[in-house]
Design brief:
5-stranded mixed sheet; about 35% strand; Ferric Hydroxamate Uptake Protein, Chain A, domain 1; single chain
Length: about 400
Amino acid sequence: MSINKSYKKSYGALLLALWLGLLASGSALAQTVTGTLSGLVLDASDNAIAGATVTVVSAKTGTTRTVTTNESGGFSIPALQPDIYTVRVEMKGFRVIERQNNVLSANENLALGRLVLQVGAVTETVTTVAEGATVETESSDLTGRLTSDQIDLISTKGRDITSLLRLLPGVSYLDDVESVGDGFGTDLPNVNGQRGRSSIATVNGLNASEPSGSNKVSMTTNQDAIAEVKVLRNNYSPEFGNNGGAQINIVTKSGKKNYFGSAYYFLRNEALNANNFFNNKQGLEKARYRHNIWGFNGGGPVQIPWLYPNQDKKKLFFFYSLEKPHTITPSGAKFVTVPTALERAGDFSQSFTGLSNGLPVKAYVRDPLIATGACSATDQSACFRDPTRATTDNPLGLNI
């Protein structure tokens, strides 16, 4: 009995520690990744409506958050994950207003502006759809953003997100990334004229830069697992920084209320390429080239029959992504000169140093025992003439 009780206590303590850890990680994540939706609820006469119920619904997970407007008619809903939200405003004596397609990115304070309620029954609903990009009026920071659709539609050789950052204004990146991570991490780009080591990269709010202080991203994430990338170039809020350069925020995908997934395979092979000029000239085959990348990902609600049905699909989600690159970089043919039989015996009378105007240039080797004279095409008085003379042979050289 005592063993069972001890086991139960240890098991309970472990669950409590995991729960506290999840809470701590969630709050830490909210500080640097989440955004805020705000707005002002008015009537047709521009009078503030206090006490109106404002509900936001996540398009991805279906979860909701509800607040009420203050005496000025304003509302603010912080700590929202990057997503597309529907905002619904209700007040007795007024028609319900519903604004759809509100795109909230990471670290964004999205101001919805004036939401005007019309007099009518609460059973009536006025629906509007936000179209185009919304101007962020609550912050003066200069930002660039890559959405999930842009990341999926634009091809890159190494499938590393840093290669796509060059599409953003103010970003300069010249590296040819072969694969995600590029071995020991990919270099950070130069942003607004500053060196890459001045920038800092984060993945879901965690520092992803090389801790030694170099300009590399050590925490690499494959493109299919990234939801968006936001680059804060200048004038960002005090909570960002650590370095004097840009802030590169990478947000990964997560599960949603519907199951989804994909699989892919990218292939590059010498059989699909032409041989280069120098290989053809020497009669050589194409160099071996392998650039194969395969992977898959998937996510959705966690549903375990008889244990955790999660029927409303709004409580627990999962997402998993795996990518495996295999690269063999081709190298051109290398030509080297090896000693001839005469040269190995010390006779350089038939040796040449190269070509001049298509003709071979004879080699002249000076005799180290002759102090005067020269060894050239016009004066051969100091040239080495007798390869059989053992007195000039270095005993160490003879052992080679």
